[in-house]
C-alpha cells in the first residue's frame, strides 16, 4: 500500500465570523491511497487551531501519518487493505484520530467502488433530496453567501444586542434561521434574550450549541425554557454522546459531521440511531471541496431529511473537481498541490 497526502489552502470569497474564530482561509487535506493497481481519494478540512474539542491542522496531520502507518501494517499482515467500513475502528477515538480515519475511510471506499465500477448511490440508495443549509454571520459586516437552493440559514451569533445592520439583514433574509452560538453563551438569559430579539424579525427554527461541549445538564435546563428546538453540534462525536443527550433531554436536534465522528459509516450509524431516539439529525461540514461535498450529498440523500451543509463553498480561486463515471461522481484536482507526506 502506498499513500500521498496533499494540502490545499483555500480562501473563502467572504469570511464568516463565529464567536471563537473567523473563517477566512482553510486547509484541505487530500490522500491518494494506492494498492494493487487501484487508487482512491479522501478529503478532510481541519480547523487551523484546536477549538471546542475539534483538533487543529497540526494535530490532524500527525494523526494521519500514524493512521496510514497503522493501515499499512494491517495491509501487510492481512494481505489486503482493510475494508473501508472497518477504518474507524483502527483508531483510538481521539478527535484527531477521528479526522484522520475519516480521510482514509473515504479513500478506501472510493477505491473499492472504482474497483467494482459502481457508485456510492448503489451502496446507499437515495431516499431524499436533502435540502441545503447555508451559513452566515451577524458578528461582522461581510457579505452573505447564501446558496440559491438554501432551505435554512445557520446564523453565527454570540450573546449581546444586535446592531441595526444585523437586524435589517435578518429581515431581508426571508428564510428560516438556526442561531449558532458555537459554545459562547454563559447563562440562559443571554440565549433567551437573543432568541427573543431575532424572533421579532425572523423565523427562528432552532438554537445550536450555546454551551460548552459535554455540558448536557445546562443544555437540558435551557431546552425546557425554549420555544424552539435546541440542537447540539460540537457536542456530538459518538454514540455515547448521543445517549447522554437523550438521557438528559439536552436537545431535540443534532448536527453530525463525518470528519468529527470518524467517517461516513459512523455518521450514518449516528443519524440512524438519532432518528430512532426521536432526534432530528442534519449533516454538517467543514468547508470541504466539491469532491467531499459530493460524497456527503450521497450520504445525506440516503438518510437525512433536515437541511444540511451540502452547498458549494464559495472560494476566491476554485480548482475544478473532475467528473468520473463511477464511485462518487467526482475526483479531486490534485495537480500542482504540495505534498505533505508520502509513504
Biggest sheet strand order reads 4-5-6-7-8-9-10
How many β strands by DSSP?
Answer: 13
The residue fraction in helices comes out at 25-40%
Major β-sheet, in short? 7 strands, parallel
- What's the overall geometry? globular
Please tell me how large the radius of gyration is.
20 Å
Distance between the ends: 8 Å
Q: What is the string of helix and strand elements?
A: EEEHHHEEHEHEHEHEHHEHEEE
Give the strand content: 15-25%
Mean pLDDT equals 96
How many helices?
A: 10
Low-confidence stretches: none
Structural class: alpha/beta
Describe the structure.
By secondary structure, the protein is an alpha/beta fold. The protein is built from ten helices and 13 strands. The strands form three sheets. Strands 4-5-6-7-8-9-10 form a seven-stranded parallel beta sheet. β8, α7 (239-248) and β9 form a beta-alpha-beta unit. The longest helix has 22 residues, at 57-78. It is globular, with a radius of gyration of 20 Å. The mean pLDDT is 96.
List keywords for this structure.
4-stranded antiparallel beta sheet
Amino acid at each position: 500500500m502506498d499513500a500521498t497526502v496533499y494540502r490545499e489552502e483555500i480562501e473563502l470569497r467572504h469570511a464568516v465570523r463565529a464567536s471563537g474564530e473567523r473563517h477566512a482561509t482553510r486547509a484541505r487535506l487530500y490522500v491518494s491511497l494506492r494498492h494493487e493497481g487501484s487508487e482512491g481519494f479522501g478529503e478532510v478540512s481541519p480547523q487551523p487551531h484546536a477549538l471546542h474539542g475539534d483538533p487543529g491542522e497540526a494535530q490532524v496531520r500527525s494523526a494521519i501519518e500514524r493512521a496510514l502507518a497503522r493501515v499499512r501494517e494491517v495491509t501487510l499482515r492481512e494481505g489486503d487493505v482493510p475494508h473501508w467500513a472497518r477504518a474507524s475502528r483502527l483508531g483510538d477515538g481521539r478527535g484527531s484520530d477521528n479526522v484522520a480515519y475519516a480521510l482514509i475511510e473515504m479513500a478506501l471506499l472510493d477505491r473499492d467502488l472504482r474497483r467494482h465500477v459502481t457508485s456510492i448511490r448503489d451502496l446507499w440508495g437515495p431516499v431524499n433530496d436533502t435540502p441545503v443549509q447555508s451559513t452566515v454571520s451577524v458578528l461582522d459586516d461581510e457579505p452573505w453567501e447564501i446558496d440559491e437552493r438554501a432551505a435554512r440559514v445557520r446564523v453565527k451569533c454570540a450573546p449581546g444586542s444586535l446592531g441595526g445592520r444585523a437586524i435589517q439583514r435578518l429581515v431581508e433574509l426571508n428564510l428560516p434561521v438556526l442561531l449558532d452560538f458555537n459554545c459562547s453563551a454563559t447563562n440562559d438569559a443571554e440565549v433567551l434574550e437573543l432568541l427573543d430579539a431575532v424572533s421579532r424579525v425572523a423565523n427562528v427554527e432552532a438554537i445550536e450549541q450555546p454551551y460548552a461541549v459535554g455540558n448536557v445538564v445546562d443544555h437540558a435546563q435551557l431546552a425546557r425554557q425554549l420555544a424552539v428546538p435546541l440542537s447540539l453540534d460540537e457536542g456530538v462525536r459518538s454514540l455515547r454522546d448521543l445517549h447522554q443527550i437523550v438521557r438528559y433531554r439536552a436537545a431535540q436536534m443534532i448536527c453530525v459531521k463525518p470528519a468529527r465522528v470518524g467517517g461516513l459509516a459512523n455518521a450514518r450509524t449516528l443519524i440512524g440511531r438519532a432518528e430512532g431516539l426521536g432526534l432530528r439529525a442534519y449533516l454538517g461540514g467543514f468547508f470541504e471541496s466539491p469532491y467531499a461535498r459530493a460524497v456527503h450529498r450521497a450520504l445525506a440523500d440516503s438518510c437525512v431529511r433536515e437541511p444540511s451543509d451540502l452547498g458549494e463553498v464559495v472560494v476566491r480561486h476554485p480548482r475544478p473537481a473532475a467528473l468520473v463515471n463511477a464511485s462518487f461522481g467526482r475526483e479531486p484536482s490534485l495537480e500542482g498541490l504540495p505534498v505533505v507526506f508520502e509513504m
